[in-house]
Design brief:
The complex is a heterodimer of chains A (75) and B (776). Chain A has 75 residues and is an alpha+beta fold. Chain A has a single domain, classed as SH3 type barrels. Chain A is built from two helices and five strands, in the order βαβββαβ. Chain A has a five-stranded antiparallel β-sheet with strand order 4-3-2-1-5. The longest helix of chain A is centred in the middle third of the chain and has 10 residues. Chain A is globular and about 30 Å long. Chain B has three domains: 163 residues, P-loop containing nucleotide triphosphate hydrolases (Rossmann fold, 3-Layer(aba) Sandwich), CATH 3.40.50; 157 residues, no CATH class; 391 residues, no CATH class. The chains are: A alpha+beta (75), B mainly alpha (776). The interface between A and B is large, with 36 and 44 residues.
């Protein structure tokens, strides 16, 4: 499943990143979204298009189209 | 002279460190992207000259936004400088990613760890000794706010011997995965000895094949490039001569391989893979791994880029290994997350809180504290400076020109703008509260979806808020975006946001014609600027500047308590800057305007403005402004001069009317005998035109630099057209008595559309037909 499908505040592990432009994909990885990183969605904005995600002790906002590209499993 | 570059991720405290070391007062804030261009300051300390350079934050040398590009270029260009990498203890792993890249490029640098107190308070711990041993770079823990420049500190920074033995790092870090073990010292020597042996070649090939099975890329790579089964042994050896050299590297000091590859074993396998396909120097490959593609073909760049995901994983694996030995973090600790977020991330709360803050701050600035301080300031200025000088002039000379020059030209233009010094300082203080608290990032998150509708993204919130202070600064901040179209769009709509220089115009003209409604007129003008900016962004997004992507990758800073000392400093710094502008642009141009408005073509002094040179030229083009009710030469002069700096509009009006204080100017504007000749309708038209008509000279210069000459002219023409059209509607509507019904209908339609939209979005039932529900 993708990151924007997970339940809020439920830890999951990143498996891979697909279907996204190369530049964004690389940047996500450089920020620490690599395989087996624990990640959780803290909040979704009013239209559920911007997600607040937590990984490597940091909070980042990402868009749902980007989150769709992040394949995760529940931890 | 020693150059010291301050490098690091965004919002780690680089500007704070810069201020502490150089005793400067550069703008700092608790959000991502405060610094968008480098700031330099030279200081002499202990007989030696140092230049400190505060760079915009960057996460990686493989840049993502334009501000990161600025930093990277300086880091790579200033090879001989001393580099200080400031890292945040609370997100050390991500901060050290940049450190690894710098080490790969063999850059000389030192790591300073900031915000350690917060980390410690939250149960974290870092063993600096082990960290610096593992990393091979000198590491120190500091407090960027309190650090003071001292001899020892500088000595350490310019010391080139901070690097620890590279062999020690290999011993310390057992980080090489199975695929790369063949490159380790002992095995590499064996492989070198037996390189001609086919068995070893095949063993190596198998390793590569194992590697290839781990990733899609390597699969493709092996399919296309290495067919081990069919290749002749000789061909294989010839083709892989570079590999042979690599094996030599471990046993031969004279090898041409970049020494740094030895520090970071994970790089070796990727270098070798590139070399299998292309004949490139090691250094060239390592630079390419860090986003610097000098003298490479498109095919080579594409190939190297396809290795990035694997390289990034390897770097993080390396970091995980290092940090597992020297850092402990309390379970579930999240930097940037706060209990207040439950409230702050609620869109309704945030929207309501923002509006309340906005209206309250405008009230305090313009009608509460602001005018009280202004009156006091003007009284002090008149008592201490203006009155004694005028008295002296009256006593010593009977030259009317000289007396009028000082009274009307110098003091008039000065005091009318000086009256707004407290308002400007208060505005910056309110902005500083938003910036320092960390709320701006929350606003960016909450408003992101809304701004997307107009083709902008959440980061535009920073730019809009910065624009309330100074449009020039906020135009520069448009660098803080990830793609060109978004950057241009943000820069082009930014001047519609009312900056502090337009405040005096609003207050004076609105006070003159709207009395008790002044507050609502000012709020309305601010909102009009915002609405026009959003509409323009929407039009641009649908026409010439379509969004290619609007991805928002934004880091959340922690919510912090307000630092009163810092807020005071911000107010003080802006007061000094504003006063400098008064003495510089406002005073000098004000004097020129006064001379032109009191001199005839025969260079004789005149008190009748209609005889002056300025009036002559302004009168010739005044007819162009007749449809918007601004066909008075005095108003035209003010608008033309306002292009230099918006503060000059008010000073020109006061010179034209020959008045010496704000209150007299307000009173004179309503008089039929006034040179500027306003009616209520033309006053509204003037306010709208002043709000929207053209960026000031400094903003145009920045626009030209950031988005090019074409878009600079586009900004001028589009703003003039928009200002003219809206002023025309307002003036003609008010003159013919149709503006209020028109406004009422427009407001009702906007409210109705918003209500329908919100209800539709919030109440939309789960279905299987629309795209959104299918996806969700």
């Amino acid at each position: 499943m993708s990151l924007n499908e997970v339940k809020l505040n439920t830890p999951c592990l990143i498996k891979q990143i697909n279907n996204i432009d190369e530049k964004t994909k690389i940047r996500l990885m450089e920020l620490g979204i690599v395989e087996n990183t624990k990640i959780l969605v803290k909040a979704k904005s009013v239209f559920k298009k911007t997600l607040l995600v937590v990984f490597n002790n940091s909070c980042f906002t990402i868009k749902d189209d980007v989150a769709s590209a992040i394949v995760v499993n529940y931890a | 002279m020693h150059k010291v570059l301050l490098i690091g991720n965004p919002n780690v405290g680089k500007s704070t460190l810069f201020n502490s070391l150089t005793k400067s007062h550069e703008h700092t804030g608790n959000f991502h992207g405060v610094t968008v261009e480098e700031k330099r300051k030279r200081i002499t300390f202990d007989g030696e000259q140092y230049e400190f350079v505060d760079l915009p934050g960057l996460y990686s040398l493989n840049t993502f936004s334009f501000e990161e590009e600025v930093s990277k270029n300086i880091i790579l260009k200033e090879q001989n400088s001393t580099k200080i990498l400031l890292a945040d203890a609370n997100s050390l792993k991500r901060n050290l990613y940049l450190s690894l890249q710098m080490s790969e490029l063999n850059l000389n640098y030192k790591i300073l760890i900031n915000n350690y107190d917060y980390f410690l308070h939250n149960g974290g711990k870092i063993n600096v000794e082990i960290l610096q041993q593992k990393l091979g770079v000198k590491v120190e823990i500091i407090n960027a706010k309190k650090i003071k420049l001292n001899k020892e500190l500088l000595k350490i920074y310019v010391d080139n011997s901070t690097k620890i033995s590279t062999n020690q790092i290999i011993l310390n870090n057992n980080l090489v995965d199975n695929s790369t073990k063949i490159f380790e010292n002992g095995q590499a020597e064996n492989l070198q000895k037996n390189f001609k042996n086919l068995k070893n070649e095949l063993k190596f090939a198998k390793n590569l094949q194992n590697l290839s099975e781990n990733s899609k890329f390597f699969k493709n790579f092996s399919k296309n490039n290495i067919n081990y089964e069919t290749k002749q042994n000789e061909n294989f050896i010839n083709k892989n001569n570079n590999l042979k050299n690599n094996f030599n590297f471990f046993g031969n000091e004279n090898s041409n391989k970049n020494n740094n590859a030895k520090n970071f074993p994970y790089l070796n396998k990727f270098i070798d893979i590139v070399k299998l396909k292309f004949n490139l120097a090691d250094e060239q490959i390592i630079f390419a791994f860090n986003g610097e593609f000098k003298n490479l073909t498109d095919e080579q760049i594409k190939f190297i880029r396809s290795l990035y995901p694997q390289i990034i994983k390897a770097r993080y694996k390396f970091l995980d290994n290092i940090l597992s030995d020297c850092m402990s973090v309390k379970k579930d600790f999240v930097y940037g997350s706060s209990r207040a977020d439950k409230l702050l991330l609620n869109p309704l709360f945030m929207f309501a809180a923002f509006l309340l803050f906005f209206f309250a701050s405008i009230y305090v600035i313009f009608f509460g504290l602001g005018p009280l301080i202004s009156d006091f300031l003007i009284a002090v200025f008149n008592a201490i400076i203006a009155k004694p000088i005028m008295n002296l002039l009256y006593l010593t000379t009977s030259n009317v020109w000289l007396i009028e020059f000082f009274s009307g030209g110098v003091f008039n233009s000065f005091t009318t703008v000086l009256a707004f010094l407290p308002q400007v300082c208060l505005l910056f203080v309110f902005l500083c509260i938003l910036e320092d608290s960390g709320i701006i990032s929350r606003m960016a998150y909450v408003f992101d979806d809304f701004l997307n509708k107009f083709g902008l993204n959440g980061k535009a919130v920073y730019i809009i808020l910065m624009g309330l202070g100074c449009n020039t600064m906020s135009t520069l901040a448009s660098r803080n975006t990830s793609n060109k179209n978004l950057k241009i769009k943000t820069a082009l709509v930014n001047p519609y946001i009312s900056c502090m220089a337009r405040l005096p115009v609003f207050v004076i003209v609105a006070s003159a014609f709207f009395g008790k409604l002044t507050y609502f007129v000012i709020v309305g003008l601010y909102l009009l600027g915002l609405i026009v900016a959003l509409v323009m962004a929407y039009i641009l997004n649908k026409t010439i500047l379509k969004n290619t992507d609007n991805s928002l990758l934004l880091e959340f800073p922690p919510i912090r308590n307000l630092d009163i000392k810092h807020i005071y400093q911000v107010g003080k710094t802006n007061a000094i800057d504003f006063t400098k502008r008064l003495f510089g642009v406002v005073l000098s141009v004000g004097v020129i305007v006064w001379i032109l408005s009191h001199t005839t073509f025969s260079f004789a002094y005149t008190q009748i403005m209609t005889d002056s040179i300025l009036f002559f030229f302004a009168d010739k083009i005044a007819f162009l402004f007749a449809p918007i009710g601004l066909n008075s030469a005095g108003i035209v002069c003010a608008l033309i001069v306002g292009i230099m700096a918006k503060e000059l509009i008010v000073s020109t009006l006061s010179i034209s009317n020959n008045v010496s204080s704000t209150s007299v100017l307000i009173a004179s504007l309503t008089l039929a005998s006034s040179v500027v000749n306003f009616s209520r309708a033309s006053a509204v038209s003037f306010l709208i035109f002043s709000l929207l008509y053209c960026p000031c000279i400094s903003n145009l210069a920045v626009l030209k630099k950031e988005v090019g000459t074409y878009y600079m002219w586009f900004a001028i023409i589009s703003q003039l057209t928009t200002a003219y059209l809206l002023s025309f509607v307002a003036f003609q509507g008010m003159t013919h008595g149709i503006i209020f019904p028109f406004v009422a209908i427009a407001v009702a339609v906007i409210i109705l559309i918003s209500a329908i939209y919100i209800i539709k979005k919030v109440k939309h039932p789960k279905c299987l037909t629309c795209k959104k529900c299918k996806r969700g």
